[in-house]
Design goal:
The structure holds two protein chains of two kinds.
Chain A lengths: L3 E6 L2 E6 L3 E2 L4 E6 L2 E6 L1 H7 L2 E6 L5 E2 L4 E7 L3 E5 L4 E6 L9 H4 L8 E4 L3 H6 L4 H18 L1
Antiparallel strand pairs in A: 1-2, 3-4, 4-5, 5-11, 6-8, 7-10, 8-9, 10-11
Chain B lengths: L7 E5 L6 H17 L4 E3 L2 H6 L2 H9 L1 E6 L5 H8 L3 E7 H7 L13 H23 L8
Parallel strand pairs in B: 1-2, 1-3, 3-4
Helix pairs in contact in B: 1-6
Classes of the chains: A alpha+beta, B alpha/beta.
Chain lengths: 149, 142
């Protein structure tokens, strides 16, 4: 069970899981038994809107950090998200085919996108934002977004 | 024993700025004006929000089909808050997931995909309406 950093901006509340590391896009990575689970942050899913489709690169795909991991189509936009780590996709969330709304409903849990095998998690983690650093960036992004409303 | 409806109320999304709301309204117009004009009545969500007595009494008296543009489900929530009975809730996004090639675009004027999606949705709503009139709930989502 994750703990969260939480902030409310305007009428929206955003959570950042404290057991994950993040890239600047808001893609999280969490180490689990020498593999890394990947998903989208709560802020990213709220900003993007209701997910219609999630197309994730297939199992076996080798990605460098920054390469395309998934394309998410929401009621607002189509967005490409990149891998936060170097590694190989070893599992894709099967529920993304018929219930991609899990991204909206449970972004740090059932809404995960993929599991990747990485050679050196310690080295990968060092290139990512820790929860506090991402929380600060996310809060700034959220405040910018609300100015547009 | 079957219960047959006298009239079915159709309540679409009233959201602006996204094509999904437009699809919901286009589908509602198609049902109420073209496919089942005598058996259905469109009730604007805004009148329910305002607490309009006439609209509330119609909704309270007849089964309703709601068509929401997003997961906020304002239409379904307002029908419930107005004392109505929802026979079937539709969400445009759920229908779109089944017809991925019909991507709706455009807001004031829908693209071809959006128009086709509205037609598909209208047919699904019509199936539910017909089911209510025959005493059998119809429609794929029923």
């Amino acid at each position: 069970m994750s703990d969260f950093l939480e902030t409310t901006v305007d009428k929206f509340t955003f959570k950042v899981a404290t057991d994950c590391f993040y890239n600047a896009e808001g893609v999280w990575a969490k180490e689990e038994n020498e593999r890394v689970r990947i998903g989208l942050s709560d802020f990213v899913q709220q900003r993007s809107g209701d997910v219609a489709f999630a197309e994730i690169k297939p199992v076996g795909t080798v990605l460098a950090a920054g390469e395309e991991l998934a394309v998410i189509e929401t009621i607002k936009v189509n967005i490409t998200y990149t891998s936060p780590v170097n590694g190989k996709i070893v599992e894709v969330n099967p529920s993304m085919n018929d219930a991609p709304e899990a991204i909206n409903q449970d972004p740090y849990g059932a809404g995960w996108l993929a599991v990747m095998e990485v050679a050196d998690w310690g080295a990968e983690r060092a290139k990512l934002l820790d929860p506090q650093a991402y929380f600060k960036i996310m809060k700034g992004q959220a405040e910018e977004e609300t100015k547009k409303l | 024993m079957t219960v047959k409806a006298q009239k079915v109320i159709i309540v679409p999304c009233s959201g602006i700025g996204k094509p999904y709301g437009t699809v919901s309204r286009e589908a509602a117009y198609e049902v109420t004006e073209d496919l089942r004009p005598g058996q259905t009545q469109l009730v604007p969500l805004a009148l329910l929000v305002l607490g309009d007595e006439e609209s509330r009494s119609v909704v309270a008296a007849c089964p309703a089909v709601t068509i929401d543009g997003c997961k906020l489900a304002c239409a379904a929530k307002m029908v419930q808050q107005s004392g109505g009975t929802i026979a079937q809730e539709f969400a445009v996004l759920d229908v779109y997931r089944r017809y991925k090639d019909l991507k709706p675009q455009g807001i004031a004027e829908l693209n071809e995909g959006g128009q086709k999606l509205a037609r598909v949705l209208a047919e699904e709503v019509t199936a539910v309406v017909d089911g209510l009139f025959t005493g059998k709930q119809g429609g794929e989502n029923a």
